[in-house]
Prior knowledge:
With 104 residues, this protein is mainly alpha-helical. It contains 4 helices and 2 strands. Helix content is 67%, strand content 4%. It has a two-stranded antiparallel ribbon with strand order 1-2. Strand 1 and strand 2 (15-16) form a beta hairpin. The longest helix has 25 residues, at 66-90. It starts with 6 loop residues before the first strand and ends with a helix.
Amino acid sequence: xxxxxxxxxxxxxxxxxxxxxxxxxxxxxxxxxxxxxxxxxxxxxxxxxxxxxxxxxxxxxxxxxxxxxxxxxxxxxxxxxxxxxxxxxxxxxxxxxxxxxxxx
Length: 104
Ligand SMILES: [Zn+2]
């Protein structure tokens, strides 16, 4: 196995012997950074897909209480509302023209 020169860990500054040429951290800090990176990725995934994940978690329950079902329907409805609003905003001119045609 190739021996690499000792390096200073970029986090704790401790001297360590790297296993690969581009290793920047000692074993301990490398592990921590790996965990942190994983957590950041998991968290960002969570925030991006929060609604879906929460819905999935709800759906995974064998029985749903009525308020839960209602809450879910509410979310679905508000989503549709938003989509429709955005669509109307984006196609405002076309909708206006269509409306004018229908009226005249
Ligand atoms: Zn370190």
